[in-house]
Amino acid sequence: MVATRARAIFLRVAKLCGAFALSRRLTRKSVRVLCYHGAWISDVPFRGDAMFIRPETFAARMGQLRQLGYEPVSLGDAVEMMKGNKPVRGTPVVVTIDDGWYSTLTAMAPALQEHRIPATLYCHSEPVVTGNVLPNVLASYLHQLSGYPKLAPPIEAAMKTACDTASPMEARLSAAKVVAEALGYDIESIIKSRNFAYMTPDELKDLFDRGIVDVQLHTHTHSLHDLSPNAVTGELDRNADALVEILGVPRQHFVHFCFPSGRSSRSAVEALLQHGIESATTVADGLAMPETHRLLIPRIIDGDNLHALDFEAEMSGFKMLLRKVLGMKSEAQKYLPDLGDVPQPGTPPGRLTTTELAPSLAR
Ligand SMILES: [Zn+2]
Predict the structure, then answer these.
(1) Do 221 and 184 belong together in one domain?
(2) Are residue 161 and residue 260 in the same domain, yes or no?
(3) What's the 51 CA to ligand 1 centre distance in angstroms?
(4) Using one digit for the tens of pLDDT, what is the confidence trace for 113-152?
(5) Distance CA 264, CA 285 (A)
(6) How many angstroms is it from 189 CA to the middle of ligand 1?
(7) What is the whole-number distance in angstroms between the Cα of residue 222 and the centre of ligand 1?
(8) In a 3-state reduction of DSSP, which class is residue 224?
(9) Is residue 13 in some structural domain?
(10) 320-335: average pLDDT
């Protein structure tokens, strides 16, 4: 509590002293990529986090972007700016939304429409195709919200089954219901709220056809398994096949990727390169700088865990610069692979550096 207040005072002073404005000037050629997931639409009280933002927080953020002077652009345009093929105008920001939650349609799309903000939805296609709720997310959120630190052994065993992706889906769903009921939740109303469900294929197509989101790749099963080239190929194929079928667009449409759970490796990046993927995002925090590799693009993970002032500090680049000066790295940054001489996507042989490819960003 004291630390939170001290941080808020520090940020307020930094902002008043012009550190946010200066950081923004210093990073004006960098792209800000925001990352969201779903919104919390259940009746179960929850203050929101980076996974399930409250709809009012999301709407406030979308309203803030232009107020703060950022220029919302599509992911495709941002990638062209990063390549140096398009001039960087304003301070570009890209909105990305992971997974395909039903609440993206009902609680996030209206704010995107109202503020005319283009967004990219990285779709994890299996739950869209099967219509299943996500038993692991349902069980673990209800446990967290129940306030029970320790579960009785039989409920703990049910929790394990609900979260075990190797178990049959029927068994996982039954186990999630056991957990929910043991914790005193009305499982029927939670399932009915669709808080833990994805969009149906028709709902996803509707969102896409109305131009509210572009849809791109996030694997079929939300995993790259052992991160081997074969695993990457298998997941890209299943994901793209499902999305081609649902959206009725050609396979070539899918050129942007988001690493599920942020897990990446050099061999996975090389496999994406082989498949003609033009950009890939992670959950490592930061701005996409001119020298950033376009197959490991960092994002600003936004949610109710970020106070409005923290959000401003992240967006301005102040927090990223401060972390650099202090030599601080988040857990996600520590696990980013070293890409060494892996070329940027679309690099002709012999032209390896970002500064050569993106002179407008290097200036
Ligand atoms: Zn995801």
Answers:
(1) no
(2) no
(3) 9
(4) 999 999 999 999 999 999 999 999 999 999 999 998 899 9
(5) 14
(6) 25
(7) 6
(8) coil
(9) no
(10) 89
Residues 125 and 211 in one domain: yes
Looking at the 3D structure of the chain, how many domains does it have? 2
| 163 contacts 139 by C-beta, under 8 angstroms | yes
Helix (H, G, I), strand (E, B) or coil at 71: strand
> Could you tell me which of 145, 132, 157 has the C-alpha nearest to residue 184?
145
Of 204, 218, 236, 206, the C-alpha closest to 124 is: 218
**Residue 41 near residue 93, CB atoms below 8 Å:** no
Strand partners, 285: 299
Residue 138 Cα to ligand 1 middle (Å): 15
**19 lies in some domain:** no
With a CB cutoff of 8 Å and minimum separation 6, the contacts of 235 are: 219, 220, 221, 223, 224, 225
Q: How far does the centroid of ligand 1 lie from the alpha carbon of residue 30, in Å?
A: 24
Q: Flag the least confident range among 50-59, 81-90, 109-118, 245-254.
A: 81-90
pLDDT digits (tens, 9 = 90+) for 221-253: 999 999 999 999 999 999 999 999 999 999 999
| Structural domain span for residue 151 | 135-193
146 shares its domain with 125: no
**Can you give the CATH number for the domain in which 210 is found?**
3.20.20.370
> Are 44 and 99 part of one and the same domain?
yes
Q: Residue 150 C-alpha to ligand 1 middle, in angstroms?
A: 27
